[in-house]
Amino acid sequence: MIKQINTAKIKRIIKVIVAFSLVMIGFAWNWAVVFFALLVLNIKTLYRALLGKLPLDVPDESFFGPESHIYKREGNANLKLDIFYPKEGLTVSENYPVVFFAHGGGWISGSRRQANNISWCRYLASKGFAVVNIDYRFGYLSQIDDILRDYADALDFIRKQAEEFKIDSSRIALMGLSAGGHLSLFHATYNSYWKKVENMEGIKCVVAWYAPSDLMDLWDDDVESLFARFAVAATLKGLPTKKKENYIHYSPINWVSERMVPTFLVHGSADKVVPVKSSIKLFKRLMEFNVPSVLKIYNGADHAFEFELKTPKTIRFIEETVEFIRSHV
């Protein structure tokens, strides 16, 4: 038993040292080299992200898009979003309810144009929603506040252009995968906690698949992913030993209140990137404040399981996600 505990501690120390070393190399030398090394170490997750698709057929005639728009300019870069629309279902006078979708990638990678994200957007659009799929700045060159500001600015952009885009800005569901789920949860918990009514305008619910609600969980012994540790350390500019206040502040679980909107959480019990306890803890916290919430756990499933496990249970979780959104927007 003592030997097992010592081995676990040694492994944890090694992972912390490696993550810290990679962050230092990135800041002092070359982020591209570090990023490439991490991608090689996380090839399975990368495969799901680049080539993964939902286990559901979506006929091309059931949606149209994407229509691309620049929602803001930062320096020399244009930040864009895509909008997917249902093909049929509304009269001329109606506007579409919105799913505001944020991709994953540990805040330091990913794109709205990845196959897995497009797969979700096509499916949701085929179910009657206008799906707004955003890009945002990355944490290795920007601050976490910059990323959160991009998220909020993209929301403001579609609200202001609602009539032009034929969307109903009073019926918005926030949705994200992994780090994108964190952004969605943080925006909703933080702004509802502080009664920032304008920032919460039109937001009716949140959906987060395998998202970290407590950023300290990414340093848990159950997390095998070096990428997860590196990503959060790079984004928050330090390890929890030095930047613990940042890990606490940017964790959605610490901003839950009775004003939080209904929340739908999905996680795999064998997630090696974001431990399932992060969603379990958040669900319990939401229940403490009587926030209408649902938690779905897939036993034995890993991170981003919906792109790998083509099972009836996966399909049921996806369909229940749509039912939840539809019941609130």
UniProtKB/TrEMBL annotation:
Assigned keywords, A-Z: Hydrolase, Membrane, Transmembrane, Transmembrane helix
InterPro entries noted in UniProt: AB_hydrolase_fold, BD-FAE-like_dom, GDXG_lipolytic_enzyme
GO molecular function: hydrolase activity
Domain BD-FAE-like span(s) in chain numbering: 81-286
Membrane-spanning parts: 12-41
UniProt name for this protein: Peptidase S15
